[in-house]
TrEMBL record:
InterPro entries: Epimerase_deHydtase, NAD(P)-bd_dom_sf, NAD(P)_epim/dehydratase. Residues 5-232 form the NAD-dependent epimerase/dehydratase domain. The lineage of its organism: Bacteria, Pseudomonadati, Bacteroidota, Flavobacteriia, Flavobacteriales. This is NAD-dependent epimerase/dehydratase family protein. SUPFAM superfamilies: NAD(P)-binding Rossmann-fold domains. It comes from Sediminicola luteus. Belongs to the NAD(P)-dependent epimerase/dehydratase family. Gene3D superfamilies: NAD(P)-binding Rossmann-like Domain.
């Protein structure tokens, strides 16, 4: 029997592309997309979809039983910038959805879980350059606290109940198919849209805010690679550091100018600057490289080329 996969939060920035890629790999009917809202037309037409609130255990269990689900990818969450506005809602969504999925696995109703963590688990006291897999972790945002707590619970469920949960700490993600959902690195996607439509962009982060970033194709490949790796290779059951590139808004603007020479960038940092200041500038992902063979393929030049080519179609 081919395995059945359920994606929670499938209509978001990552969920949309993950749904397409998993459907290509395992077959459209084997991958059930779900979200609290409908996604774009193409996604809805590409295979089965369920309107589902990931915080509702009963409804989630019904869908898992109905489709005889083996694996769950939990992509529903409230992201960093939005979570600062609604701390309790963020905590409830980010933690309860995770407990629901962990408990389904603990009760042997599903066999494997993917749950993403984030570079937001680190905080202002963490060494900023080449941040190590194991280091000081004192997150200062609601989102970061929820991700760090989530990591602890994932490791606990693995050790205590043998739950096969796998996780990576995504950096800021850059994609052209779906807009980002309220994070601190959203500027790195908006900038390409504005460069093409208006030839100018005002960044909500200052010109020297260097942050770790990744092109979506790399993020999806990392997600599927860790999920398909033999269980003994996954030695870290909290979450793996993952890296591809690091750059500042100013460096990004210079990179876009190679393609659009009259592109103009200005800067008006807002409340998201404080979140960015608490995060690492670059990440050491050598543990993921060693354990399950991770290696990023997209640098800034290649990302800019892909973004501008696809958005101008
Ligand atoms: N995008 C990034 O740069 C980034 C970086 C680090 C980590 N992550 C993590 O990856 C995951 C996916 O992020 P994303 O960027 O795709 O987020 P997103 O905001 O684009 O998408 C989240 C989706 O979850 C859905 N959702 C919200 N509440 C729900 C609920 N109660 N039940 C079911 N669905 C619900 C939303 O409708 C949305 O479609 C999150 O855990 C996020 O923290 C993302």
């Amino acid at each position: 029997m081919p395995k059945s996969i359920l994606i929670l939060g499938a209509c978001g920035q990552i969920g949309t592309e993950l749904t397409y890629t998993l459907r290509e790999r395992y077959g459209n009917d084997q991958v059930i997309a779900s979200d609290i809202r409908e996604g774009d037309k193409d996604l809805m037409a590409s295979g089965p979809f369920e309107l589902l609130d990931a915080t509702n255990y009963g409804a989630l269990e019904d869908v898992v039983m109905h489709y005889e689900i083996d694996e769950v990818y939990l992509m529903a969450a409230m992201l960093s910038a939005t979570a600062e506005k609604f701390p309790m809602r963020a905590w409830n969504l980010n933690m309860n959805s995770l407990f629901n999925v962990l408990n389904l696995a603990k009760d042997n109703k599903i066999s494997k879980i993917f749950w993403p963590s984030s570079i937001a688990v680190f905080g202002p006291n963490t060494p900023k350059e080449q941040t190590a897999q194991n280091t000081i972790m004192e997150p200062s945002t609601v989102y970061g606290i929820s991700k760090q707590t989530g990591e602890r619970w994932c490791e606990y469920y693995f050790k205590k109940y043998g739950v096969d949960v796998r996780s990576v700490r995504y950096p800021g993600l850059i994609s052209h198919k779906t807009l980002p959902g309220g994070g601190t690195t959203d500027y790195a996607v908006e900038i390409y849209h504005k460069a093409l439509s208006d030839k100018e962009y005002t960044s909500f982060l200052g010109e020297d805010s260097k942050l770790p970033m990744m092109f979506m194709d790399d993020a999806i490949r990392a997600t599927i690679t860790i999920m398909e790796s033999a269980p003994e290779k996954i030695k870290v059951r909290s979450s793996y550091n993952l890296a591809a590139m690091s750059f500042t808004p100013k460096e990004m603007a210079e990179n876009i100018k190679k393609h659009i020479p009259d592109f103009k960038m200005s800067y008006a940092p807002d409340s998201r600057q404080q979140i960015a200041d608490s995060w690492p500038s670059s990440i050491d992902d050598s543990v993921a490289q060693k354990d399950w063979g991770w290696k990023a393929e997209f640098d800034l030049d290649r990302t800019t080329q892909e973004m501008l080519d696809n958005l101008s179609k």
